[in-house]
Write a structure and sequence with these properties.
This protein is an alpha/beta fold and 426 residues long. The chain has 12 helices and 20 strands. The chain has helices at residues 3-16, 22-43, 63-68, 70-73, 80-93, 122-136, 156-159, 181-187, 196-207, 227-237, 345-355, 379-396, and strands spanning 104-107, 117-120, 145-151, 166-172, 191-194, 217-220, 243-248, 251-256, 262-264, 269-275, 280-287, 298-299, 302-306, 319-326, 331-334, 340-343, 362-365, 371-374, 403-406, 419-421. Strands 3, 4, 5, 6, 7, 8, 9, 10, 11, 12, 13 and 14 form a 12-stranded mixed β-sheet that branches. Strands 19-18-17-20 form a 4-stranded mixed β-sheet, covered by helices on one side. Strands 1-2 form a two-stranded antiparallel ribbon. Helix 1 packs across helix 6 (122-136) and helix 11 packs across helix 12. It is globular.
Length: 426
Amino acid sequence: MNSKLEVAKNYLRFKHQRFKSREELEQYQERKIKKQINFVVKHSSFYREYKEKKLSEYPIMDKKTMMEHFNSLNTVGIDKDKALSFAIDSEKTRNFTPTLQNITVGLSSGTSDTRGVFLVSDREKNQWAGYILSKVLYGSLLGSYKIAFFMRADSNLYEAVKSKNIQFEFFDILKPISQCMQRLESFKPDILVGQPSVLLEICSYMEEGALQISPEKVISIAEVLEEQDCEVIKKAFNLKIIHQVYQCTEGCLGVTCGYGILHLNEDILHIEKEYLDDKRFIPIVTDFSRRSQPIIRYRLNDILIERKEMCPCGSCFTALDRIEGREDDVFLFKNADNQQVKVFPDFIRRCILFAGEIENYRVVQDEDASLHIYTDCGEEMREWITREFEKLADEMQFVLPELQFLPYCYDNRKKLKRVESKIRRK
């Protein structure tokens, strides 16, 4: 089938697919998982021994394990070293068009310690394109759209959304953003996609009058969208909602609904929830659409906060209050008895937010557990921040190290993390 027709077919399927209840969704997932497992055990030598086993008996996977068993896991006969070399060469040359054995190969962005590579077939690419268009277009597939996409790397995956009426413009964030502004204004996007740190830079150009664009929709990707950053972006673009697409190497995991609530994409994924408390959980993902590189019981290290109230949109898909950050970014302190106390990123954010109006900040716990706060605020605000951290230490009963304040900075070649722990986990 023509790839454009296949994209359109997938768009229509997912656009009009509805589930009346959670029970109906789970029955659908069960059928899809069974079909996926039947394929995988025949074509992946790694999973061959799990034939006839239930999903719950399959091993938990992570990036390190997947890369160690890459050759036996994938079903298209691609060697890991060749795939890595191919992906790295694409990154160096900034040419993301070629494929390896007719498979799109990409490099993960490296936010975890293990470098990863992903594989996507043409069939999977067209399904992804149809799916993502069904979620992000604010009108019909036949309407005209200009989509500006700020990303570290282009890909055949993203290019698949192009058509006669959908213009797609890639902006390379490794280049100085100032070089992109004239092209962005000339393009005049209807949909603007980028990570929050990039969107904030674009907002600053708009506030200075150096850029005039008015997209119908702004979509945040790749980084945690902090509440105060979201408000700045809303104001700059005069929008009520900043949408999010929760996308990573392991798949398209979540999309914001029309009410601004992020939902997990449980029509293409099965999510097991490893709860950390009554609302926080680590997702364990089984994707029943990826066959080239099966994603079965893949444990992410993201911390998601589940929304307990029913979303006004009526969807039976799991709704999230927010993505809190990575499990690796939980701060570790000691109490008076030298026992470890874990503090989730949201509590660290609160110390800054409760202190007052602070536009830019980063809180970093270094390997020795010391705390560095990067902000350009004055002495009085530093005292307020210190008081908030002292309150938190008292409430959670841990020994607070001395706070070290430094001028605000971050490496814009990397994803922006407002809250980051550099402590090595065992």
